[in-house]
Backbone:
């Protein structure tokens, strides 16, 4: 048994060391986005996207009489 970390992909659990890892940042006026990709050769086997909203969303609440 090996202690090498594994990551779940579309090809099942693979050793992290066998994959190419890359990040991409996008800084837009209303959000900040981080995309993480893992590739096995030329094949994309896992992608994660994290989005941070720079400003909270407004909620309009309406009340009605029953």
Residues:
């Amino acid at each position: 048994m090996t202690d090498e970390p594994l990551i779940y992909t579309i090809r099942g659990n693979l050793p992290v060391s066998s994959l190419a890892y890359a990040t991409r940042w996008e800084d837009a006026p209303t959000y900040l986005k981080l995309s993480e990709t893992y590739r096995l050769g030329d094949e994309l086997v896992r992608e994660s996207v994290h989005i941070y909203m720079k400003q909270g969303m407004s909620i309009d609440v309406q009340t009605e009489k029953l």
User: Anything to note?
Assistant: The mean pLDDT is 89. The beta strands are 6-9, 12-15, 20-27, 31-40, 43-53. The two ends are 66 Å apart (CA to CA).
